[in-house]
Design brief:
By secondary structure, the protein is mostly helical. It contains eight helices and no strands. The N and C termini lie far apart (about 45 Å).
C-alpha cells in the first residue's frame, strides 16, 4: 500500500483510504484521514467505520481527537465518527467527558444525539446539566 502523506491527489488519498478500510485493523492509519484537507476524504473515512474491524482502538483515537483545539475539522469528523461507532463508544465518551473542555463535551453531546441507545440518552441527560450553556 502507498503512503498518503504528501500526496496531493484527492483520488489517490481516497484509494489509499479504501485500502485501509478494507484491511480493517489499522486505526491510526484510518484516523489520519479524519484530518484530511478535503471534506470528501473525511466523509468517506467516517462512512468506512461501519465495516472497520478495529473499532475499539479507533474509538480511543477519536475521543482524543475531540480535545484537539487546533483542527476543528478533525474534531468535527471525530464526533461524526463516534456517532457511527455507536453504542460501543458511549461508555468511553462518558469517562472522557469528565476531563474534557466544554467544546469537547459539546461534541460528545452531538455524537450521542446520533446514537439511538439508552446509554447515549443517559449521557445526553447528564450533559444537559453541564455548567456550560453551549454543552446543554
Amino acid at each position: 500500500m502507498m503512503n498518503p502523506v504528501g500526496e496531493t491527489s484527492v483520488d489517490a488519498r481516497r484509494r489509499y483510504l479504501t485500502a485501509v478500510i478494507a484491511e480493517g485493523n489499522d486505526a491510526h492509519a484510518l484516523s489520519a484521514f479524519f484530518r484530511d484537507a478535503d471534506w470528501r476524504v473525511r466523509e468517506e473515512a467516517v462512512r468506512g467505520i461501519r465495516s472497520f474491524r478495529a473499532k475499539e482502538a479507533l474509538t480511543t483515537i477519536l475521543i482524543e481527537a475531540l480535545s484537539n483545539t487546533q483542527d476543528i475539522a478533525y474534531r468535527n469528523a471525530a464526533a461524526m465518527g463516534l456517532a457511527v461507532i455507536g453504542s460501543h463508544g458511549v461508555v468511553p465518551m462518558q469517562e472522557a467527558a469528565k476531563y474534557m473542555d466544554a467544546d469537547a463535551r459539546k461534541l460528545v453531546a452531538e455524537a450521542c444525539a446520533n446514537i439511538p441507545t439508552g446509554a447515549a440518552v443517559t449521557l445526553l441527560i447528564d450533559l444537559s446539566h453541564d455548567a456550560d450553556p453551549n454543552v446543554r
